[in-house]
Amino acid sequence: MTQVTWGRMRTFLAVVEHHSIRDAAAALHVTESAVSAAISHMEKSLSAELFVRDGRGIRLTESGRIYAGYCRTIVAMVEQASEAVRSAGHGRLRIGAVATASESVLPTLLASFRDRHPEIELTLTVLPRDDLFDAQTHHETDLVIAGRPPPDSNLTTRAMRANRLIVVGAPDSFDHALAATWLLRGPGSGTRDTALGLLAQLDAAPPTLTLGTHGAVVAAAREGLGVTLVHADAVEDDLSRGLLATFPLRHTPLDRPWHVVTTDLLTGSASLFLAHITDSALVGSSAFHLLKPPVG
């Protein structure tokens, strides 16, 4: 039986994250020799090489890549287990969200939840959809707000809230949406994938410009650089102020509800948050609709 400890797994994951023994040691506040010794011990215990030299740095072997996936899950579940046995009102809640949800959906909900449960430590991670669901599969977040999870992910949608995707741009800037440049989010974004899928469905190939972040895309649309497919929630204020206008297009608006997604394991703090955001008496029109009540 291998003698790989939880602490060594965390050291290994730090090297994976930083691609460097030196940088991992700095992040962990230990010596480089301690990190090297931990990796050597793991490789000896596993009878497998986890890293190989790559130029001036190191990279994972295939064995290392596979092992990293297990380590991510084990370390996250150890941390999650400690939270599960703590009082729900005094635990930690790790929320993940796509950028649009973090800016337009979560602020009001987080503020009212913090008022009710000030002892719960909240953390918010903002990532592209695919990265969020990957992190959640490894139990690195407790709850994610994004679009629909992949069908083969074994993740559970607990609640939903109506949302539409619409095409917007600066008022009177283009005669038609397909005559404009299409402003896109970066790779890994569900909105980007949906926009490209819509253009394919329309058999259209307008010029595109990738700007990466949600904020950059919307700002560019306001300045007349092009049009973009965006969550209606995210541009409600811009539309009401006349800074953006909706461009009618076949097959739009698209029904793309927000999903509250978890694994089958739900911490007490996550259960409290789920109950809070599905209580319309508390959060009004911001409320989600509960689909699958927590077990236990």
Explained architecture:
With 296 residues, the protein is of the alpha+beta class. The chain folds into three domains: 6-79, Winged helix-like DNA-binding domain superfamily/Winged helix DNA-binding domain (Arc Repressor Mutant, subunit A), CATH 1.10.10.10; 89-157 and 258-286, Periplasmic binding protein-like II (D-Maltodextrin-Binding Protein, domain 2), CATH 3.40.190; 164-255, Periplasmic binding protein-like II (D-Maltodextrin-Binding Protein, domain 2, 3-Layer(aba) Sandwich). It has helices spanning 6-18, 21-28, 32-46, 62-84, 99-104, 106-116, 129-137, 190-201, 214-222, 236-240, 268-277, 280-283, and strands at residues 51-54, 57-60, 92-97, 121-126, 143-146, 156-161, 164-169, 182-185, 208-212, 228-231, 245-246, 254-255, 258-262, 289-290. Strands 4-3-5-13-6-14 form a six-stranded mixed beta sheet, with helices on both faces. Strands 7, 10, 11 and 12 form a four-stranded antiparallel beta sheet that branches. Strand 8, helix 8 (190-201) and strand 9 form a beta-alpha-beta unit. Helix 1 (6-18) crosses helix 2, helix 1 crosses helix 3 (32-46) and helix 2 (21-28) crosses helix 3. The protein is globular, with a radius of gyration of 22 Å. It starts with 5 loop residues before the first helix and ends in a 6-residue tail after the last strand. The model has no long low-confidence stretch (mean pLDDT 88).
